[in-house]
Specification:
The protein is mainly α. It has 7 helices and no strands. Bound molecules: zinc ion.
Length: 144
């Protein structure tokens, strides 16, 4: 570990509404490091994150929610296996599983993945999520 940490205030809608065993502290530390652009911490937290299927799935889910909020839907190159684009097949597989609100299917698919594929999906999710946080995340939803 390092001599510092990244505090990312987790909005209440980051909590898992279905009560799955998501490690919120780990998720917050990971997103905080990613947001601050601290690759040292991001790598360390990533190693912990990818051994935790529920927390990895929640990260992917949050990335999908953020993309949907800003684009009005998931672009084909984030879900379709064959569409050209940068997003990894691991991320696409999870995003596809979670389409139409089938989030349980996404959590199951993530649990069935090996650590390397989870890492691939988590990397994409972090990039996407941080790109969206740079704009206010879900600002339409938090203004209540
Ligand atoms: Zn750091």
């Amino acid at each position: 570990m390092t001599d510092h940490q990244h505090d990312f205030p987790i909005p209440s809608d980051y909590q898992d509404p279905a009560g799955r065993p998501v490690d919120m502290e780990l998720l917050g530390a990971f997103i905080g490091a990613a947001y601050d652009g601290c690759t040292t911490c991001q790598d360390a937290e990533m190693t912990r994150l990818v051994t935790d299927p529920a927390t990895t799935a929640r990260l992917v889910e949050l990335a999908c929610v953020a993309i949907q909020a800003s684009l009005g839907g998931l672009p084909r190159n984030m879900t379709d296996r064959k569409a050209p684009g940068m997003t990894s097949q691991s991320f696409r597989a999870l995003a596809r599983a979670g389409l139409d609100g089938r989030n349980d299917a996404m959590f199951q698919a993530c649990a069935a993945m090996g650590v390397p594929r989870r890492r691939e999906a988590a990397n994409d999710a972090a990039d996407l999520l941080v790109g969206q946080i740079a704009m206010p995340l879900g600002s339409a939803e938090t203004d209540r």
